[in-house]
Amino acid sequence: MKQTTAQKILIQLIEHADSWLSGDALATQLEISRESVWKAINTLRKQGNEIESRKNMGYRFVKNASLNAAIINYYTNQDFAGRLYVDDEVTSTQSVAKAFLSHHQVTQPTVFVANAQTEGYGRRGRAFFSPAETGLYFSMILPNPTHEWPKAGLMTTTFAVLITDVLRQFFPDQDFQYKWVNDIYLNHKKVVGILTEAVLDLESSSTAAFVVGIGMNVATQLFPNDLKAKVTSMSATPVDRNLLVSRLIETIAAHYMDYANPEYLDAYRQHAVVLGREVHLQLGDETVVGVAQQIEADGALTIKTTDGELRTFTSGEVTKVHYAGQQEDSQK
């Protein structure tokens, strides 16, 4: 995808963020006029880029609190150029990704990022609160050249581990944990939801790709009343969301084909909040109550029910987890 003059200047400014670049230097390097540089700087500022200017010194990039495709591509060394789509607002990145896949042949991981979602959703179509500026919402189309996905049940647990590995780099003091199977928790409250959906190849009746959707509460402080006791954020201080999403998509793209590696499941088990605790598992119209015993090699959850029976589940939703002296209800 061809870069605009504004994008080229933005990259130059980011690469020299610790110094000043004069308008003359930018014009000479890009073989454009000083007026074109000035117009591009104004365009970049309108896009949310904070750019300082000083007489006889030039310009300096400070930050961009908004999500920006050019910046994300820069942070990923242009690895996703042409396969990264960033919007200010969409219905849901998951819906956008699946619609794209229905009309395009995708051979490499492709990413859809939004600053806000009007109809974000998680498991069972449950709404996911997706306010602008303080969250991070993206979906990735992950194609499989072999059309074979052994132990596909491990995909979500592996994604949870990969995502948390990145989050710990940005929030090293936070103790992230996993609630089987698709939520990341902090202080017994949800901070990240993961939704993994298979897309079938109708000709071969096999799974052609997975679309993984990720919604996270990065710095959101104002939640609807019905969510306040059930969700939380990673920090009250905003982080560089462009850098964060770039690290996340890089990590997932680099490792998703190795999702069945048992090391990921071991890491998931070590931080699983359900193990050893009484849980309520909703399975259709049935509610199973018992103590979570084990996460099996295929990602299934084994529960010892109140009548002493061991039952293993590959699907279902943990709606309650009993901690010492308190009980947590599932939220979104």
Automatic annotation (TrEMBL):
Biotin binds at Q117, K190. Keywords: ATP-binding, Biotin, DNA-binding, Ligase, Nucleotide-binding, Repressor, Transcription, Transcription regulation. GO terms for cellular component: cytoplasm. GO terms for biological process: protein lipoylation; regulation of DNA-templated transcription. It is an enzyme of class 6 (ligase). It comes from the Bacteria. InterPro entries: aa-tRNA-synth_II/BPL/LPL, Bifunct_BirA, Biotin_CoA_COase_ligase, BPL_C, BPL_LPL_catalytic, HTH_11, Transcriptional_repressor_C, WH-like_DNA-bd_sf. NCBIfam families: birA_ligase. Acts both as a biotin--[acetyl-CoA-carboxylase] ligase and a repressor. This is Bifunctional ligase/repressor BirA.
